[in-house]
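ENTRY TYPE: paired fold submission
RECORD: A
CONTENT: sequence, then structure tokens
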Amino acid sequence: MKKFLYLFFIILIISLLLSACIQDNKVINENSNLNISRIIDINFNDKVAVVTSKVTADSFEFLITNVSPDEIEIPSMFMNIVKEKEDKLLVAISTINSVNTGDVLLTIKTNNFNIEKIDYFSRNTLTKQYNNFDPYNWKWGGLLGDFNLSGKVDLTDFSSFVYYYGMNSCNEDVPDEFSRFDIGPALNIVNKGNWKYVYDYKLEDQQVNIIDFSIFTANYGYSILESPSGTIVLNNNTDITSISTPAYNDILTVLKSLPDEIQNINDIFFNHKEYIESLMHAITNNNFQNFILNLINIPENLEESLINIIEDLGVFSQKLSINDYLDENIKWEINDFDWNGDGIIDNNTELHIAATVTYCGQEPQKGSFGLYTDILLKLDDIDNIEFICIDKNTPGDAIFDWEFLTKKMNYEDLSDYSLTFDENDYLIVDEGLISMMAFVFNNIYVRGNAFFLYDLNNTSATITSILQSDSPEASLDELFLTLANDYTITASEMENNIFGEMLKPRDDFFETRVASIQNSIFSQKDIVKMVLEDSIIDYLPQEHEITSGPLETFSIWQIYISNILNLFISDINVPVHIFGPIMIYPAVFFENPEDFEDLSIYLPDITLEGTIDSKEIEKIIIDFPDPYFNGLMSGIENPLIISTIDFNQHMQIPQIINCEMEGITRIRPDEFGNPTPELALRFDVNISNPESVQKVEVYKNDEYITDLYYERDNYYFNEEIFEVITLNSYEDTNYTIKVYNYNNEIVDSKVLYLGKLYSENSLEITSPYNFRTYTSGENIMLQWNNNLILPYEGAEINIAKIDETTHMVDWENRMRVADDYNDETPYFSIDDLSYTIPSSFFESSGMYLIELVIYNWSENTSFEYHTIIEIQ
């Protein structure tokens, strides 16, 4: 949390300045002696048993009865854990190397023991170099096994690990710090330098077992501590031309250019203050007419200046998009620059901002305010700030006080803090901070560049005149009557009288701009990946390095409640739903920009039927020259015929026709076959007039839960997944479905009740275990334990085929095997604890999911247990 707050304050300071301007590795869990004999050999000699391996692995776990710890000998090649567990002995061994067939695992000095269970694991079956991971779905990384954050994995860490070994958060209460020790399965993401052979990214499986021990052993003895690297000092006097390394030269150039760029932005927005205030007022008040009018009348010099700034930020992003790790850090003496643009560097005095500030209980005050003394130190006492510009007339360039921020992060009392700027006020700039800045600049560049693709402020003279008139609605009516006097409005008439040049490129660089936007979108994921990899390397906190320290890295992207990753398009290949059946395909636009350079070629001809003078239009026929827009869109009828009835129907308020919810406690296998619990809240809603629906949201009381997404026709759906440990906070409460129109108004809502949810141990399939293999034609004996406490109203058994290519379950063709509520389906009872599934249900070889389900329809709850088998 502390690192996030550091970042927040750095972003806040910069924002103040800008605002002034604007695999196949299953754990084998077998209980029969037959299966144990496949894993080990036991050779008896007098009263000594020698246990040897029959498999290749690196870690083994034994559950043994009738034996004491002093009767167990373990070869020195293994790290080992020996714990007594319910009158049994749990013995875990792991080696950094590999165990081969015939290698000795244990020597047991008694003949009366019994090995009840063996688990084994080979970390080499897990793909160690995982290059296709998704950086937008990240968990904590670092030197796994370094529990005390010493920079190495040693005996102290092993002592802590032993305590947690054998714990399972799914079926027992565990300490709060348990997840720190759940380090397996794991991957190697960084894969370079000291990190080349280190497991540094954990996938977690809610238990500390032989898999975690294998990962711990692999990292045991590793140290990522390095002697301090060289440091490049950056201040206003740094001669960048003396830096020969291109990457460092680019980074230093950007950092040294930032004060000048901020001054440019400051001057531009200050010089166009009235225009910008008018534009923002139109946006804030949803005044479409004034917004369009402002857009049309944007001053030419402002437009050119904005484009230049956007291009500068694009260049900054490219220069900061590093492809490899830096050998030296950069010491950024951030106060030693001319931030206020007065031509004098005063690094001992705080920067001042011209603004109107309203302190709590006081009238607004307009004047010059110190960045720290009047703003940052008094944030809790400020109701509102309206920035004007950076104050050039008040000396001072210092914007960063390390001691102040450190105290703030530690929640220390700052009421008597004495503000001092000195040589300790600097930042260490590394790959993480550089890439975060690249992310922000790249985001602004993409959005800004897209805004200036078309000549949006060059509408027809007719429309400009109408918008500037005192009665624009009457003028628009007159234009409509003029254009429709022959009951047709042609595409050329719309272009000449309405759109003008708006749908044409702003300049001759359209295709170049589109390609640049596409490249920037593609690069964004690599930028984020670099930040997250840096968080692994810098998991230990470093002084003055704000992107270092152990933290769930994804939270550094959160500013207040918003996640800025959601503001950015990360995959242009994903179709975007507009409304109803209409979809847009961004990839088509980027792959064929020449087809969309002049959008006016897609304007339709419109034919009207009815009486024009009285405006009693009975039918509107819209004939598109290409309803697919060269592959950019789908779902548009052509010709699109709208009768008066249809038109009124389109204008009707959306209403919820039907809505259902289901709270599902589900046990599903993870990629290793381990039963994994989850809570799913499913919502199915039918809404009339979906073309008038902007969004559909779900709230639990006043707490936002999720959005529902359009599927087809008038159907909206979503299934949101939560951790099962939070189950109690979602049951016995009301959920509200809210439907919004395009004015962001709630036009309909419905309340649904969710009753008592089933606990995760309500049912348990005991056979078949996950990934068990059967021969074609063999019946499947499904067996389960019944631990139900809550009542149920219906039960069923289903099977579904798993696609061999996508590994997705074919839910649409799921087959009902048996239930206890439908007379036309074979009967079974939950109390029977078993049911034989006929082989006829498995029509072909492959993977199948078997599902055991119970329902309490009165409470809108259910329980599902899934297991996966293979038919050969």
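RECORD: B
CONTENT: sequence, then structure tokens
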Amino acid sequence: MTRQYNSIAGGEVEPFLGDVATETNTNDCNMGRRDSVSSHIERMRSNSIKSIRSTIEIVREHVDKKKFALLIFSSFLLYIGFICVFAPRTSLARDLRRIHSSHLTESEIFRIYLNELADKNLAGQHVRNYTSHPHEIGDKETLEYTVSQLRSMGFEPKLEKYYPWVNKYGNTEVHLFNESDIIFSATMLEDCLREDPTTCRKDNARGYHGYSANGTVEAQYIFGNYGTLEDYKRLLDNEIDIEGKIHIIRYGEMCPGLKVKNAELYGASGVIMYSDSYEDGYITQANGFEAYPKGPARHQSSIERASVGFFSDFLGDPTTPNYASKYPYTERLSPSGRLPSIPSVPLSAKEVAPLLSKLNGRGVNMLPGGNIEGFNYFSGPSSEDIKAKIVNDQKYKIVEMTNVVVDIPGIFSEYDVIIGNSRDSWTSGGAGSPNSGSSILLEIARGMKSLLRQGWKPLRPIKLISWDGGAHGNLGSTEYVEDHSQLLKRNALAYLNLESAITGSEFNSQANPLLHEVIRRAAKATQYKGEDNWTLFDEWDKSSGSRIDPIDGISDCSSFQFNMGIPSAQFQFRNNGKTDAVHQLHSSFDSYTWMETFVDKNYQMHNTLAVLVGMTSLMLSEKEPTVFTMGPYFEGILENYNQLHESLLQAFPKDKEVHNLAEKVSKVLSYLRSVSSSFDTEVLALSQLCTQDFPAWQIYKKFKIYIKLTRINRKLKQIDQFFLTQKGLNGRRSMRHSIFAPNKWRGDKVDVLPGLHEAICERDRPSLLLWLKTLQTQCGNLESLLQ
């Protein structure tokens, strides 16, 4: 029907009344039909309900209630039996993941992670961004870049702030005087190289030391070689006058802080530290190689900035030892005894040469010599009319630093796997140390995010942390550990570190022996620089027999391993000592230009390490029993103990009490070594049980496996923590581990059984007995744990 409209004011139209009436009648008819259908349905529903009620009444009248209940129960059992017989067979491993809606298998997890990093490599972009400007402790630009990159991946990073007391650059000077005339003044800067834009920035900091004492010193000077105790003994044995002099010391053999500590102990008024290319091995100008940027050798103007705190004795902020500097107003202690009291500054080989050449023919010759042009490596002292002047004016203050933390929750709420790296640097450089590790950390995060997008939930939690304050003394990692010590003690499983990740071509791993096997397995699953038929393990085995070294003495691992007993590992491509370009640590020449020209042009080694560390963390996270192997752990302890046992017998040849106690410790360590192999076999068998499929009616077996799994994992996590002591090493309270600690006299290398070693070297019988009894007790407790 065509509808007609009447015109009304405003141009609107309305239907004729006849049309309205027609529509109303039509609606009434429709409503009538609907009412008829509704009433019919209602009658049917009423009849059905009456029928059901009638049936129930009949059942009640003719069937006994107990029999009826038994019938229902029997039907339920029949249903359960049907499910048990015909339900698919599953393993405990699959059940744990299905309960938490994580359906990816282990092989799928590895494949997705590997494919994500194989398809794209953003490491070069990250390195260039991190090294685009000076980024000391507390730098906002690198913080914002790290956070923005993580947020762009879909993470919600947590920012944790701390407030350490540190020095920022103020002013440093070195002058050479002939009587009252200045005959040389150091620039305290690297040369500007046209080929490397980083070296020509106007905001590059001059050479200075972190935590160096302020002061101005003018005095005669000596050459103290490496500044070791043996060097000072040689000087004193040859009656060299070193008291009150400025001591010129070269880097190498020990950490910088202990060099200044020794110099202070032997009466130095100040210290000048320099880099001698002799320490670079074969790749030197003396051997015919051109210097950077034309060649791989060290540039003579390279300055190694460093921190000179006594970090082999304590960890973190020197004004808040063993507790976190969580607020600007945190109560602080005097740093006396933890920092030098004499000024120190770094110099380049180029600018130290005029000073050292004045020592030729004076004093005693110091071996092994070196490569400083015009210097014959005599000790001095300088003549009375030749003096050096040091000016060190640093700005000490409380600064805000920020750790960036990404949490990936796991199915288990404990056993965290932590991956970390510091992002701050002394200069605009830092491409090798620390920002190769910073870029790899972001690449690992990208790989993890690809898994999360596929519905993955790790079995164990994973944390990715970008530390601040690493250059001054691993402040970010230490403050974090001090702040979260109780949580870490309960939950942390392992710490993986990326410090100085790419500085050469030779792969090296340093790790707690509990982690040796999982690292090698991860290396076998990692392609070397993307090559199809050559794994990282193949390359590693070829270059060093897949050797794993002890952890460095001072790094971001220190607080985790030496203070908390959390098994730690570090991964690097380092200088091979044969053909690789020299890494000019903490100088302006550690730039992306150097990285792309001489080390990792296409950032393939960055990608390789991102795969390796990611795979190591996934293997630690995804395996039901913790993948620690105890065999290498106790094998290494026993091997080192046997060496110390020989030294002990020589140091205390007629002391029966010492001999008897040492023999008891030897026996219990031998027993633990034998038991550890059996325990590793038991863990392997449990791992196979966790992946074995069982029919549903054998669910009780899964409960048994789960109970055993919980017990085994708890034991494995406690192993390293059983060697913690309450008071720490003598005079080094932060170093609480009986098995691993920085070497007391070198700092940069780890010492195995440090308390025992120190007591033997110092002929300290009470300390020796104390550490033997401590080891006996700790090993006895472990023996009980493993039974």
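NOTES ON RECORD B: The first helix runs from residue 17 to 62. The chain has four domains: 13-86, 106-164+399-622, 166-398, 630-786.
STATUS: closed
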